[in-house]
Specification:
Elements (H helix, E strand, L loop, with lengths): L1 E6 L6 H12 L2 E4 H10 L3 H10 L7 H12 L7 E5 L5 H13 L6 E6 L2 H12 L5 H4 L1 H23 L4 E5 L4 H13 L2
Helix pairs in contact: 1-9, 2-3, 4-5
The structure holds adenosine-5'-diphosphate.
Adenosine-5'-diphosphate binds next to α2 and α3.
Length: about 190
């Protein structure tokens, strides 16, 4: 079982690359952003709560996010591996994930970080906002807030995996195919 965390700031291309990696390796893709958006669309209680944070560019509280992730993860006992996308986004989430996996005798094989310069992120998110229908992509202030939250709360998670010798970085700039190829190479070598 290969459990991979795909890491990087908003707009780095985690969602885009996940789709290719799922196809290629058969991972179960667990994207907390996607799960929250699914709940918003279906007007669940969780969706209403998550929306109030997401629309402001803030993180959904750890306890809510961790409980949700654990429940989703538990739905796939026969998975060949998981691709975590958008989770963990805080050190508390990283600790919780290690605990959840350890209880099942599993662990994270690697965190792979997609690195993209800030101007490029802003441009990508604004472009995506024209068609994604995501309110958090349409507003430059909210995008700025998400990037600030990334630096403050999420970037330290990299250090958590570095300390375990599990972090690897990869440039997220270039063609989608070339980035998929580099990611696949790293995953295959694990
Ligand atoms: P992006 O990486 O482009 O910001 P996501 O779809 O991963 O997009 O996340 C969208 C929003 O969902 C975040 O800004 C945040 O409000 C919420 N969210 C997603 N994952 C988490 C998480 N692990 N912890 C807290 N909030 C989250």
């Amino acid at each position: 079982m290969k459990n991979i965390v795909l890491f990087g700031p908003p707009g780095a291309g985690k969602g885009t690359q996940s789709a290719y990696l799922v196809d290629k390796f058969g991972f179960v893709h667990l994207s907390t952003g996607d799960i929250f958006r699914y709940n918003i669309k279906n007007q669940t209680e969780l969706g209403t709560l998550a929306k109030s944070y997401m629309d402001q560019g803030q993180l959904v509280p750890d306890s809510v996010t961790i409980d949700m992730l654990k429940a989703e993860w538990g739905k796939y006992p026969d998975a060949v591996g998981f691709l975590f996308d958008g989770f963990p986004r805080t050190e508390a989430q990283a600790l919780a994930l290690d605990e959840i996996l350890a209880e099942a005798g599993q662990s994270i094989a690697a965190m792979i970080g997609l690195e993209v310069p800030e101007e490029e992120l802003l441009a990508r998110l604004l472009e995506r906002g024209k068609t994604s229908g995501r309110p958090d992509d349409a507003n430059p202030e909210v995008i700025g807030q998400r990037i600030a939250v990334y630096h403050r709360e999420t970037a330290p998670v990299q250090g958590y995996y570095e300390a375990q010798g599990k972090y690897m970085a990869l440039s997220g700039v270039g063609s989608i195919e070339s980035i998929t190829a580099s990611l696949s190479e790293k995953i295959q070598a694990l």
